[in-house]
Hints:
The structure is a homodimer. Chain A is an alpha+beta fold. Chain A has four domains: 1-78, Glutaredoxin (3-Layer(aba) Sandwich); 80-264, Glutathione S-transferase Yfyf (Class Pi), Chain A, domain 2 (Up-down Bundle), CATH 1.20.1050.10; 298-402, CATH 2.40.50.140; 429-469 and 507-754, Bira Bifunctional Protein, Domain 2 (BirA Bifunctional Protein, domain 2). In chain A, the strands form four sheets. The first copy, chain A, has an eight-stranded mixed beta sheet with strand order 10-14-15-20-19-18-17-16. In chain A, a hairpin with a 3-residue loop joins β18 (677-685) and β19. In chain A, α1 packs across α7, α6 packs across α8 and α11 (238-248) runs antiparallel to α12 (252-260). The two termini of chain A are 41 Å apart. Chains A and B meet through β4, α2, α3, α6 and α11 of A and β4, α2, α3, α6 and α11 of B. Chains A, B: One of its GO terms (biological process) is asparaginyl-tRNA aminoacylation. Chains A, B: InterPro entries: Aa-tRNA-synt_II, aa-tRNA-synth_II, aa-tRNA-synth_II/BPL/LPL, Asn-tRNA-ligase, Asp/Asn-tRNA-synth_IIb, Glutathione-S-Trfase_C-like, Glutathione-S-Trfase_C_sf, GST_C. Chains A, B: GO terms for molecular function: asparagine-tRNA ligase activity; ATP binding; nucleic acid binding.
Amino acid sequence: MSSFTLFVAADDDRREVIEIVAAAAGVALVVKAGETCPGAEGFGPAMGGVPVISTAQGPIARTVPILQYLAGVHAHSALHGDCLYTDAVVDQWLQVFLADIAPNLRILQDVAPDGTVAEGSAVAQAARGKPVAPKAGLALRSRAEAATAAVFAALAARLETHSCLVTERITLADIAVASQLLPLLESGAMPSVAPAIARWALACAHHAAFVAVRGAPTEAAVNRIMSAASAVAPAAPAAAAAAAAAASGAGAPAAASAAASAAAPAATGLTNSGSVSAGALSAPPAFATRWSRGRARASEVLTAGAAIIGQTVTVGGWVRSARKQSGLAFIDVSDGSTMAKLQFVVKEGIADADSIAAVAKVGTGACVRGTGKVVATRDGKSVELECTSLSVMGDIPDPSKYPVAKARLSMEALREHQHLRPRTNALAAVTRVRNACAFATHRFFQERGFLYIHTPIITSADCEGAGEMFSVTTMMPADPKGPIPRTEDGSIDYSKDFFGNPAGLTVSGQLQVESFACSMSDVYTFGPTFRAENSHTSRHLSEFWMIEPEIAFAGLEEDMSLAEDYLKYCTAYVLEHCAADIEFFDQRVEKGLRDRLQNVVNEDFVRLSYTDAIEILCRPEVLKKAKFSIKPSWGMDMRSEHERYLTDVMFKKPVIVNNYPKDIKAFYMRANDDGRTVQAMDVLVPRIGELMGGSVREERLDVLEKRMEEMDVPKDNMQWYLDLRRFGTVPHAGFGLGFERLVMYVTGMENIRDVIPFPRYPGHADV
Amino acid sequence: MSSFTLFVAADDDRREVIEIVAAAAGVALVVKAGETCPGAEGFGPAMGGVPVISTAQGPIARTVPILQYLAGVHAHSALHGDCLYTDAVVDQWLQVFLADIAPNLRILQDVAPDGTVAEGSAVAQAARGKPVAPKAGLALRSRAEAATAAVFAALAARLETHSCLVTERITLADIAVASQLLPLLESGAMPSVAPAIARWALACAHHAAFVAVRGAPTEAAVNRIMSAASAVAPAAPAAAAAAAAAASGAGAPAAASAAASAAAPAATGLTNSGSVSAGALSAPPAFATRWSRGRARASEVLTAGAAIIGQTVTVGGWVRSARKQSGLAFIDVSDGSTMAKLQFVVKEGIADADSIAAVAKVGTGACVRGTGKVVATRDGKSVELECTSLSVMGDIPDPSKYPVAKARLSMEALREHQHLRPRTNALAAVTRVRNACAFATHRFFQERGFLYIHTPIITSADCEGAGEMFSVTTMMPADPKGPIPRTEDGSIDYSKDFFGNPAGLTVSGQLQVESFACSMSDVYTFGPTFRAENSHTSRHLSEFWMIEPEIAFAGLEEDMSLAEDYLKYCTAYVLEHCAADIEFFDQRVEKGLRDRLQNVVNEDFVRLSYTDAIEILCRPEVLKKAKFSIKPSWGMDMRSEHERYLTDVMFKKPVIVNNYPKDIKAFYMRANDDGRTVQAMDVLVPRIGELMGGSVREERLDVLEKRMEEMDVPKDNMQWYLDLRRFGTVPHAGFGLGFERLVMYVTGMENIRDVIPFPRYPGHADV
């Protein structure tokens, strides 16, 4: 959890809204009331004591920037709008309630409806000790009421037809506005309010973030809000509501549909949102969207929580467990969107589910869709769905035959049911984390201006030795007894093959992507690669995905820094976006996983030359302590035990070993002047070992040609590669990592076959 | 270009900053001064006449939300910070200058340094016609100066060490602050100012967006700013500057390096930014970054433009053309980051480039790296690099042998040099657009909560017929004369093959991804697929990339809407992010391209049943007009000429034809009750034809099995697929599109071999 310090004047009531937003965003806040933040002089006291938070990057002053920042710390906090426009509408509400009408709200709070001015209040202080006559107080108050009337009208109209202020879920706008209004309503300072505002304010008061900061609302406070609501005539007509909704942030089509559905407001809400998730990405392109999901995701319902209590939503998913109890059925449903299950509560005799017994019978694995009201769970900590209808879309006719019915099947057993295993907790969590790693990879490189290049899968060029390549051919006969074309001398006649030459599946896109680095500067690949090794270990696959960035005008330092930043980025991204999944892996798969990952994000990686690494490993005290099975010596390829010593014992953080002996590295790596090392680097990570490997590429034509000759690399097929050195050569570098290794590293999963949807290894390519 | 209407009071001076931001963001703004925006009552006049813009989605009121919105309309406008923290610092400056100290700035403008109050000013109006004594004016002014002193000190300290207010490029903060300060400085209302502020204000005044709205600054205005700067003692000491930089938004490490480099402030700036691009994505994970590029990209220099005039930067790239002229060499350099070239101006005798003749000799294709000062081009419209050093990293020893030297090679000729062709304008533009399409695809699905699934490349299952599959094998003998394992009866012995069975390269990931839709709900694939067709057309490849989303609990309507939204999203994304590339294609490849694409974004797609489509095509007047070579009739697979008639002649926009005859569609498509059609759909696009195809999947086990029998689809290998219907089946749908078709569609390129880095087709898999 990220942590920040808030500096705020002792009596500053903006403290509360900042604390609530921090709670909603899952950010820890240390409050230093009455202290000032060093380094923020230009924005603090000189402006009359504004709130300031200090962050690792520096201070931020003023309420709105602070709220926006806190809301953004974790992308999943989803406190912003869902597009550029709704973001702006959120901003608009913040501006109006935290700045523009704040002084008038202050007056409504300080001056009672009868004109009495609260002692010690700003109004009283402004009178410098002289008593303020109730008549003067009343005048002040009525000016404040007039100044805020239009805003309250817009607020009421919006909330007549929508569950929240801007989108259909709690945003910064709801928190900011409710934090200003709740004290007014709960204290009776605002004795009448539109029922829609009261309903929404109550939902906010029960929201976890509000409860965390202000405590649960008291019965008296709830009663006062309710009576304020009953003091006014209900509901604006639909047309006015729609107009006001348009004014307050619903999109034009949404406003129209809001008007259309005004007769059944409970049916609006999450159900038809098809919404863009979280604030993970700003400003998607603007166009009129037509897709809607027709159902809410379990993750959306559980995240919105108390904010949507009372709303009607539809959720579909697969039953994880079901039980029957005194006329009710309780069904835990998962739709893959989150580790948590949403509980359906089903009463006897509702449509489509005519007996509890029938419902309870659907059992694990059945597919159901339920519509109902979101209600609080008994402990008040979460919400569940009180179904008004339930459809069984797909049942399990014979539960004994459902292969993944049991609660805890071994990973080996699940591997026999690859098409069903994502219905289990572990594989679903892997799927979400793998997805997050993939998107984090694209985001990382795209944010830095790299271009994604699709290097070829079928190729006649080979990077690291043809022995490991799968052949790709169209010469295998359709009739298994048929012949394979041969020339007169009995050789296989590849001129008859599809590509006119022997072709195989790529083992790396590096050589090809270099040609794009030598024209577009900064590029990366992310695609499948193959090894025809007859390997049955838990760390090898025949088909796996690789990521290979390549940067021009760069040397070893840049390459190491890029690798370090990339790994930290992906790790931090997963910690942020898959917190519940990482929690699961931490508990069930690898104790201490989260700490291990946080260590990678927090620590500067050690950079150590191979020569120094060997020197360290050969120190007598190290040899004594480590008891290596193979004694390290200069020139050897380091074994895992050596790498582990460096990362797990010696430094306790990631280590980048660099400048390896040339004889244990590939032909294309750039030679150092010492004549015996090349500019290669491997990133070693505690508990995992090597995760990435890279190098500077030999950019000098003559040196490269000589090295190819020394290492017997045939040059005939490689003229195109030499061309890159022949014409406008450039220093460049890159690295590669196996994507599945990355997923193993972030999940703690121990067998590589369990982190890819359909693993391929000797004898296995069935599905 | 997007367009919005601004409603603002006739005398509201916030109009200018809004117009400047719109210009900087490339957004067209129609100004209606003195009018009010309908539908924004709650936020407009009641608040005293705030600015309002109307957008397609609704109105937005108040200056800061409006600026944020305009800045975000085009993600490439890069007007925000480069991370969550700098975003907050931008917000902070907006808040301070547009709200908090705005009244004091107003006073500095209205009351002259000698205390004279301007006629008609707010101060004069507040006195209700009574003259304000200079003494009272002076008191007002000195209060305003005191109230703003700390802010100006922070501003000066920041600008001592940085070129811009928040990051090293122009953001909203610079525009907002400069728009408030420039009138004060140019009018002499602020007779002294820190030199760093003056320098920066001048750079802003020359920025294209300011010039577009305010005109170029006059000589008198420039002189007044310069003399204000010389009225104060120069420069704060480095320590104070660093402290203040920390206060005003530089990250802690940046502040330290700023202090370290205070002795050579000109060396800071873009050069070492390694910065996160644009506002394309908000809030990347927070960690201490170590990677820096050591060079600026040409796109960054050209985009920053006037804002970084005078800064020293390093740029590397490849020479597109070079010429010599009276002691100078002019070299146009491209680094792949943008269509535009950055011009290097090199003087005789600089380090590393001892004679102009030598520099001019490097010629097209050479790789150079230059360091120098950013200066305005002669026409003042752009910037160029005045080199103080130039290194030739890689030359072209014999220009006559450089294969892509000529200005305009045919696409066919370039195809012979796949490794060098991205150095040409056309292929570089394709590379950027292809990258944008790929990332837009991921963003689209990720924003909507879809999970990215890697379906297998090697498979024993086949979706649409094994005849088109490449075999994948390890049985081809290393010795070409060697045998291939056969069983006793002469059949090829696949039990000896790597996977123990015949295996091939996938033709589609759909069947496999369905298993994830039936557990994780909303998923998509994006990976390579293969066809072993001996096809030599300009529209077929043997290896191509496909995108296949699959959604659970969904029917044909949702599927069509998802396809429509997806295509619009990608198109809008490319229009926004690759504007210069699309301009190039519009001019050189397909006239009217941009309009064609904009039409797709703007129009609701027509949805038409196959039966209705055939009915339309068979109308006598259509047959007469269209002169089809084949007369359409119900049951046939529509030909391009028929599809083209619907999209290009009849509707002039995209058309989704749906509910096709079952006999021309695949076995897995869901049967309609009419017994003769299935829930399939094809998206047809003007000038292109079919771009996407999809369907609802048959979710009923018995119906699916019967259909497989009817169509002779063997069930043995498909039991896993039937399991998805056997256990908790769910209605689901999806579609697929060939990624290269998408790139052809957005670029107008006519041969599919030119939109993929290394095309594979019969006889070609060399590189």
